[in-house]
Write a structure and sequence with these properties.
mainly alpha, about 0% strand, 2 domains, flat
């Protein structure tokens, strides 16, 4: 028995009856050779971590656009926090940690530069149906690995594309990612807003602090514990009614106090205009894009390819390209 087979047998012995066993995966889009040392979901985790799109998350906005400072969250640190929360919940419920981890690591790979401001630009310039979660699936299926894709398992892909809104993943492990994403961003966005001086803990309504906790770790623990307690022994992932209602109220408070705050969003209009200019330029000059996106013009529209290119940019790269294309350079006499 090799290592991967040992893991598969251990899953059958230890995981909940509601867990998604790796041995029962629906498989991948393309044929593959199994690994002797890792299960399929473990391989997916590794493929995502080693991908270029995962590394680019380190320079993509979470809330504050292109923040200057060592301690603000980026899309990468957000992803890592989501992943850790997802693992804790999956482990406590005896579900497949590897599946939850892989889906969590990949859930935001398609996020645009400048956060949701960039998503809105893609909706206006390319398609009203554009979403970062659908783009994340496109990244892992088509764009990564120089157009070869990552060839992930069906369950990981399902968890990635169904992590937000009214969408519901087919596995409990995928559904965990949806809850972990919300728990992570609500709490770390409070932390970042306090660090930025646009929010104080005392600004949070008292009844929410009494229910959820005053400190960052207390609130996360309250929410995670509620999910574990409420979901134990059932074929579903739920948060308790009181904690769930308080969490939703806290999220609404954040929209009013942080996400729509003119200080946090002061540069958003500029970032949108920047991306619009870039989109228009590359639609008119598609040959200026990198080879992958030019190659994709053979089977996709120019707008689709430009959207893929811009959605993959980091904040800094988008600013640099805009500067290169539209900001005049001082004239210097050549030697």
């Amino acid at each position: 028995m090799n290592t991967s087979q040992f893991f598969l047998e251990r899953e059958k012995e230890t995981l909940s009856e509601f867990a998604q066993l790796t041995s029962e995966t629906r498989g991948r889009l393309h044929p593959y050779t199994p690994c002797e040392n890792r299960t399929e979901y473990q391989r997916d985790r590794d493929r995502i971590i080693h991908s270029q799109s995962f590394r680019r998350l380190m320079n993509k906005t979470q809330v504050f656009l292109a923040p200057v400072g060592d301690h603000y969250r980026t899309r990468l640190t957000h992803t890592l926090e989501v992943t850790q929360i997802a693992r804790v919940i999956a482990r406590a419920l005896r579900l497949n940690e590897d599946l939850s981890e892989a889906a969590a690591l990949g859930h935001d790979l398609g996020h645009t530069p400048f956060g949701h401001a960039g998503e809105e630009v893609m909706q206006s310039c390319y398609s009203k149906d554009f979403t970062h979660y659908a783009q994340s699936l496109r990244v892992v299926d088509i764009l990564e690995n120089d157009g070869e894709g990552l060839n992930l398992t069906w369950e990981v892909r399902d968890g990635i594309v169904n992590h937000q809104g009214e969408h519901r993943a087919a596995t409990l492990e995928g559904l965990i990612v949806k809850f972990a994403d919300r728990i992570a961003y609500i709490n770390h966005d409070i932390d970042d807003a306090c660090h930025a001086g646009i929010l104080k803990i005392e600004d949070i309504p008292l009844h929410l602090r009494e229910i959820l906790g005053n400190r960052h770790s207390e609130r996360i623990n309250t929410m995670v514990t509620s999910i574990i307690d409420t979901s134990m022994g059932i074929n579903d992932i739920r948060m308790g009614e009181e904690i769930g209602q308080a969490t939703e109220e806290l999220r609404n408070f954040l929209f009013e106090s942080v996400y729509l705050n003119p200080i946090a969003k002061g540069e958003e209009t500029k970032s949108k205009e920047l991306l619009i200019r870039l989109f228009e330029y590359y639609v008119q000059n598609p040959e200026a894009m990198p080879e992958l996106f030019v190659r994709n013009l053979e089977h996709d529209t120019v707008e689709r390819c430009v959207c893929d290119y811009i959605a993959g940019m980091t904040d800094r790269y988008a600013i640099d390209k805009y500067t290169e294309l539209f900001v005049p350079k001082p004239w210097r006499k050549s030697d």
